[in-house]
Structures are given as structure tokens and as C-alpha cells.
Write a structure and sequence with these properties.
Oligomer: single chain
Radius of gyration: 25 Å
Strand content: 5-15%
Number of helices: 19
Number of strands: 14
Strand order of the largest sheet: 6-5-2-7-1-8
Largest sheet: 6 strands, parallel
Distance between the termini: 34 Å
Helix content: 40-55%
């Protein structure tokens, strides 16, 4: 049996295999631009990294050919000159804030990021705990990191930040923050998520470096919005869809237009804060190196799009996926109705509807065919060749598990009536769930079905053949007529199946695991 789930972590393109983004060109041009920016500041640059350094699946979905780890691969080429600083908000530690995409707390993600950086040869110099006001959990995390051999610094809330420039740029403002000892030309400042204080950390360091007579600069690396694409380009609309809960709005940068007479796209928060940043730069060093918020960026992704049609199609698909995700988040009480309304408007602007997602209609049709049953839940999955297979709730399997098995059977041309997993194999698993673990649902979730399939593959050539096809599901589209369990969502994410679902549960219970 050669099948291995680690195959699912390889690079991806869109399901059709079309490529719209030149990954190698991106690595080369982005590295050169960062090196140029370091030189322009005399050899020391603090670079704020927005978005995800690892596992940037949004970028890989809207820019087919962009690899989820493209940014760290680019940094790895400069590893001798790179030092990583990770910033975490003390309030996020105190509140056990979670990363929704991978299901772990921000403080746990700091440890994950350290390991991930070390695994590819990137040096993590220190951790900054920002917004510190004496939180006990933050101090406990500080102590834990120090026991692990990490350098840890505290930064504090500054009254009047970011508008009271005279107070911010003083010994009572940035001066209160602990100075981070850095040794390399490029200091990459990153964080587990938004609101961690990356920009304030960079500016604080500029203040301390200036007081020590050290020349240093600041730059920002945000992949989206892409500054040299049109405002309403689908890639930029997809970014707005991804950040609907943050109320980010793409805008034409008025400062860039005034300075250069050219249009550039930025987003509202950077544009709104630029006059303050400009004043802070002047206060720290007597002059500002930038004439617009777009000037601060170093993103070269827009120059590496090699097929705009492919990128536009992928971005429109992403907007539809984000619509379903926002509808479900609204159902779960995680976002407001305003976020849903924004997604509806973005869909209209992009000229798409849910009917443009083939798996939606297929799943709803399969569910309608079972309306007389107690459990009419269904899922549909589109294979790489465009064929759609479905799965439904049965006595043995949930729809998420059923459609996976049906998909690999279809890829092998195995007849529908052939069982990949014998009922005799499933039955003891169900007894374990009900009689030992105390579950009320005997049906196998997708993770349990895949384990059962792997066991069957050791005894059956047919099951082994099907198991080998699992990597082919990477990048496939799927839709569920209900919100699946968390374990099913996690499995589909690990398989990189792009799952959407209707905003409803399969029961009327108020508590859902």
C-alpha cells in the first residue's frame, strides 16, 4: 500500500490544472524587491508581514500556481539575512483566541510557527507580547517561552495610539517598550493573526534604533489587495470577501494619485492611518521615506500573473465559497448580518451567483430525492474531470464519509455496488462509538471512514486501489446540504477539498459540537 496522507501537503493549482500565476518568477522578483528596499534604508529593514506566511490557501486558490508556502520559500532563499520576530497580543492569550482555519489558540500557534520556521532554516530571534497590562496568562506564556530558550519582550498599550504623535514618539510612549535585540538586516515581523500589534512593534523599533544612532527602515508586505490590479478586479474583490468580518474596503490610494498621478489600490485602514504614520516617521527621524501608503508595500504578486483569465475565474469561485462560509458563520453567530449583505453585494459586483457552483445544485437535488427520509442530508463532490458524485446519510456512513468513498470509487471505475469497506469492518467501530465512547450517532465520520479504508486496503486490492486515489481529490470542490461536524470540516481541509455548505444543521438542537 503506497498511499500516504502526507501527499496532501504538496503544492496546488486549481482543480482544472490551469495555472495563472508564475511561482518561480514571484520568488525571484519578490526577493530582489526586498533586497532593494533593505539597501535603500542603509542595510536594516523591519518588514511587517500581513496575512499568512505559512498555509496561505486563500492566495493559492485565487492565484492558481501560487503555492501556500511561496512566501516562506522566498524568505528561505534569503535565510542568512532574515530574522523572525513573532508578535502576539496579550489580550488574545488571555481570551484564548482561536485561529479558525486550523483550530488552535494563538499562543499555541506561536509555538507551531517557531517550529515551522526552524524546520526550513529560518531564525526566530524573539517573541513580543504586545498590549501587555499585567495579564497573568500572558506572564505564564512569557515564562514558558523563556524556559524553551526563546527571548521574550513586553510591549505596552500607549495612550492615544495612533493619533497622539507627540506622546507616542516619546520616552513615555515607544520608549516604555522593551527594545528588541536584533542582529540581521531583514527583521520580519509576523503574528498568528490580525490585531496583534505588528506595525506598532516595527515603529517602536525604529524609535529605539534612531535613539541608538542606528539607521533602519520600515516596509509592509501584504499580498492583498494587489496594488497594481484594477479596484474591481476579481482578485481584489475576493480579498474583500475574505475580510468581510473586518470591514476592510478596497480603495484607490489618494496619496499615491496626488504624488505620482497614477492609480494604485490599497485598503481603507492603511489609507486612514497614513497621515499618522507620516507624522510618526517625521517625529522619529525628521523625514518620511514614503509619499503614500502604497509606497510602503513591497508586494510584487501582481507582476507575476501569467494568465488573467484563469486568475479571474478562480477568484470568482472564491467569492462564492466565501459567501457560503459567511452564511454559515452568521448561522453560528460569529459574524453579523452586515457581513452577509456585503458578500451578496460583492457577488453582484463580480457577476456570480450560487448557480455558478455546480456542486451546489447537485447536492440540493440529491437531498430533495430523499425528502421522505428522516435524514435527507447529502453532499456532492466534483472530480478533476468535471464529473460530480454524491453521497448521502445511511445507516453506516454520514454524507461526508460517503461522498469520499464514492469519489475514489469513481476515480477507479469501481462499480457502485462494491463495498470498499465491508459492513463487518464498520460494525465494531459503531459499537465502539455507541457502547464505549457514549456517542449517540453510530455513523462513521470522514476520518473514521478513511482509517477503515486504510485498514481494508491492507487486505483488499480493490480498497488499496481506491486508497491510492485519495491525493487526486486535492483541490476538488464539494458542497454539503448541512453544516458538517468539526471533524469532517477538519478532514476536508487537510485533504484540501474546497468545501461549502448550506447554513443549517441536521437537527434543531441549540448545542452543536
Amino acid at each position: 500500500m503506497k498511499g500516504n496522507l502526507c501527499l496532501f501537503r504538496d503544492s496546488v493549482t486549481c482543480m482544472t490544472g490551469k495555472v495563472g500565476f508564475d511561482h518561480e518568477k514571484y520568488i525571484q522578483t519578490q526577493s530582489k524587491e526586498i533586497e532593494r528596499r533593505i539597501s535603500s534604508f542603509g542595510g536594516k529593514l523591519y518588514m511587517e508581514f500581513g496575512g499568512k506566511l505559512f498555509d496561505d490557501y486563500h492566495a493559492s486558490r485565487v492565484l492558481p500556481g501560487f503555492q501556500p508556502d511561496s512566501k516562506v520559500k522566498m524568505l528561505a532563499k534569503m535565510s542568512d539575512d532574515v530574522e523572525i520576530v513573532i508578535v502576539i497580543n496579550a489580550g488574545d492569550i488571555e481570551n484564548n483566541k482561536m485561529r479558525g482555519d486550523i483550530g488552535i489558540t494563538y499562543d499555541a500557534d506561536v509555538l507551531r510557527l517557531i517550529d515551522a520556521f526552524h524546520s526550513i532554516g529560518l531564525y526566530v530571534g524573539s517573541i513580543v507580547i504586545s498590549h501587555y497590562t499585567g495579564q497573568k496568562s500572558a506572564m505564564a506564556f512569557h515564562d514558558k517561552l523563556e524556559r524553551l530558550g526563546m527571548k521574550v519582550y513586553f510591549h505596552y498599550i500607549i495612550d492615544g495610539y495612533p493619533h497622539n504623535v507627540n506622546h507616542i514618539v516619546s520616552d513615555e510612549g515607544f520608549g516604555r517598550n522593551e527594545y528588541i535585540e536584533t542582529t540581521r538586516p531583514l527583521v520580519v515581523v509576523t503574528a498568528p493573526g490580525p490585531g496583534s500589534g505588528k506595525m506598532a512593534t516595527c515603529l517602536s523599533q525604529l524609535y529605539h534604533e534612531n535613539k541608538r544612532g542606528i539607521k533602519a527602515g520600515y516596509a509592509k508586505y501584504e499580498t492583498f489587495p494587489i496594488w497594481n490590479l484594477p479596484l474591481k478586479h476579481p482578485v481584489n474583490l475576493a480579498y474583500e470577501a475574505a475580510t468581510a468580518d473586518l470591514s476592510d474596503v478596497n480603495m484607490i490610494d489618494p496619496y499615491h494619485m496626488d504624488a505620482y498621478g497614477r492609480m494604485a489600490v490599497n485598503y481603507n485602514r492603511d489609507i486612514e492611518v497614513f497621515p499618522v504614520l507620516d507624522a510618526i516617521f517625521h517625529k522619529i527621524s525628521g523625514a518620511s521615506p514614503y509619499r503614500s501608503p502604497t509606497d510602503m508595500g513591497v508586494n510584487m504578486a501582481g507582476n507575476c500573473i501569467c494568465d488573467d483569465d484563469v486568475v479571474c475565474e478562480a477568484s470568482r469561485d472564491e467569492i462564492i465559497r466565501r459567501y457560503f462560509a459567511t452564511m454559515c458563520d452568521s448561522r453560528k453567530g460569529r459574524v453579523s448580518a452586515r457581513s452577509v449583505e456585503k458578500l451578496e453585494l460583492l457577488m453582484q459586483t463580480a457577476g456570480v451567483s450560487v448557480d455558478d457552483r455546480p456542486v451546489v445544485g447537485a447536492a440540493l437535488k440529491r437531498s430533495a430525492e430523499m425528502e421522505d427520509r428522516n435524514h435527507p442530508e447529502a453532499m456532492a463532490l466534483q472530480l478533476p474531470d468535471g464529473k460530480i458524485v454524491t453521497g448521502k446519510t445511511s445507516a453506516l456512513l454520514g454524507p461526508a464519509a460517503a461522498v469520499l468513498l464514492n469519489a475514489v470509487k469513481a476515480l477507479c471505475d469501481i462499480p457502485k455496488h462494491v463495498h470498499l469497506i465491508s459492513p463487518q469492518t464498520i460494525e465494531p467501530i459503531q459499537r465502539l462509538k455507541l457502547e464505549v465512547l457514549g456517542n449517540s450517532n453510530p455513523r462513521l465520520h470522514s476520518d473514521e471512514a478513511l482509517v477503515a479504508l486504510s485498514i481494508s486496503a491492507s487486505m483488499s486490492d480493490v480498497a488499496a486501489k481506491a486508497f491510492e486515489k485519495l491525493p487526486m481529490l486535492r483541490g476538488c470542490e464539494a458542497h454539503s446540504t448541512i453544516i458538517p461536524s468539526q471533524v469532517d470540516e477538519d478532514v476536508y481541509r487537510k485533504l484540501d477539498i474546497r468545501l461549502t455548505c448550506e447554513p443549517r444543521y441536521n437537527t434543531k438542537k441549540l448545542f452543536h459540537k
